[in-house]
Write a structure and sequence with these properties.
This protein is α/β, with parallel strands linked by helices. The protein folds into 2 domains: about 240 residues, Rossmann fold (3-Layer(aba) Sandwich); about 160 residues, glycerate kinase, domain 1, CATH 3.40.1480. Helices cover about 40% and strands about 20% of the residues. It has 16 helices and 12 strands. A 6-stranded parallel β-sheet has the order 3-2-1-4-5-6, with helices on both faces. Strands 7-8-12-9-10-11 form a 6-stranded mixed β-sheet, sandwiched between helices. The protein is globular.
Length: about 425
């Protein structure tokens, strides 16, 4: 295998470890005495729903509705799949969330609510609380996406603007609840995945207000007023840890970034390359994280410490991008462009950074690859890497040199996958 094939092969191994069609069946519960309602939201929702259908007894009552991102749907028979807006919510998601809320309230104690939760569900399962319009929720989401806040902080705000997230979906149900969760957040805490529709929420309205202030988020007046009333106790809080609601609720983590990183590590072992997993919870500004990785790569290359080459440095997590320019590109492209500048064409070092959902930011690529000659090829095309980085235009850089990685929708999501090969 050449370098590109090794990088792409490891990414495919990571994706396979998070494939809903492979992992959902082993976690399905037994059918209840009554009926089973399947609901859910996220980029993996359609694949998870299909996996349920394919492995559910034909004579056991089953129906439901799940929401996924546009162009992520699949053909199903018993569970309806609705496509909606992501990362900014829209009216399609709102209407579907209203229907999910209505159906959940019809369940009885001998029924079962099976909830399929995956990354992207925070935007897709959008049902604003009374007094907040969809346009106001959209505006708040757009500001949160631009401010550089970690997803956990963003979701704290969103949970307190939602009629269905932050444990409220489980609270509305009389039946036992099982949530199958594919984690796209560092730490794998279900309260942060799709804003935790079936999980206790330890955060508060006051926390949400402080996040808006800290990250200088200009939210609509109605949003600020709602959060302020909640902080004063005029609105009930989200269900908290220890609430009796959650005695009949199970949140089962079925896929994580760590599992995918371990699958990639096994791939490299099979090709006689030592894998070093640096962690599944790498966060921080993408361009700054890249500089740390560059320094580590040089230490390995020049001094054989802490590992002798050849070595594959593997990591997951979710970096952030504070948007300063108007270029195209998500956090993976930004990470690689900053890394290209830092390495400055160092020989024997190449890298890949991709989002496992197949979408880097809001673009049509999963991420990109960086080769030792990437910077020189870009310079021959009169591209100025530093200026492109300042304009947040990693997409433009890697598109021009033909190093974008395009997978299309993967219908899963266990966060970003990064690998550096030092040869």
């Amino acid at each position: 295998m050449n370098h590109r094939e090794l990088l792409l092969g490891s990414f495919q191994a990571a994706l396979a470890a998070a494939d809903p069609l492979k992992i959902v069946p082993q976690h399905l519960p037994k059918p209840p005495k009554g009926r089973t309602l399947v609901v859910g939201a996220g980029k993996a929702a359609a694949a998870m729903a299909l996996a349920v259908e394919q492995n559910w007894p034909a004579d056991a009552p089953l129906d439901g509705l799940v929401i996924t991102r546009y162009q992520h749907g699949l053909l199903t028979n018993r569970i309806t799949v609705i496509e909606a807006g992501h990362p900014v919510p829209d009216e399609s998601g709102e209407k579907a969330a209203q229907e999910i809320s209505r159906r959940v309230k019809t369940l009885a104690v001998n029924d079962l609510l099976l909830v399929l939760v995956s990354g992207g569900g925070s935007a897709l399962l959008s049902l604003p609380v009374e007094g907040i319009s969809m346009n106001e929720l959209k505006a708040t989401t757009q500001e949160l996406l631009r401010c550089g806040a970690p997803i956990q902080k963003m979701n704290t705000v969103r949970k307190h603007l939602s009629a269905i997230q932050g444990g409220k979906l489980a609270a509305a149900c009389k039946a036992p609840v099982m949530a199958l969760v594919i984690s796209d957040v560092t730490g794998d805490d279900p309260t942060h995945i799709a804003s935790g529709p079936c999980s206790p929420d330890p955060s508060t309205y006051q926390d949400a207000l402080e996040i808006l202030k800290r990250y200088e988020v200009t939210a609509p007046k109605a949003v600020v007023e709602h959060l302020t009333r909640g902080a004063k106790g005029a609105i009930p809080e989200t269900p908290k840890p220890g609430s009796k609601i959650f005695k009949r609720v199970e949140n089962r983590m079925i896929a994580t970034a760590q599992q995918s990183l371990q699958a990639a590590a096994r791939f490299f072992i099979g090709h006689d390359i030592h894998p070093a997993i640096l962690g599944d919870s790498v966060t921080g500004e993408a361009r700054e994280v890249a500089k740390v990785y560059g320094a580590l790569a040089r230490e390995i290359k020049q001094h054989g410490l802490p590992w002798e080459p050849p070595v594959a440095l593997i990591s997951g997590g979710e970096c952030t991008v504070t948007v300063r320019g108007n270029g195209r590109g998500g956090r993976c492209a930004e990470f690689l462009l900053s890394l290209a500048i830092d390495l400055n064409g160092a020989e024997g070092i190449c890298a890949l950074a991709c989002d496992t959902d197949g979408i880097d930011g809001s673009e049509d690529n999963a991420g990109a690859m960086l080769m030792p000659d990437s910077l020189s090829r870009a310079q021959k095309k009169k591209l100025h890497a530093g200026k492109l980085l300042e304009n947040n235009d990693g997409y433009g850089f890697f598109s021009a040199i033909g190093e974008l990685v395009v997978t299309g929708p993967t219908r899963t999501n266990v966060n970003d996958y990064r690998v550096m090969l030092i040869l």
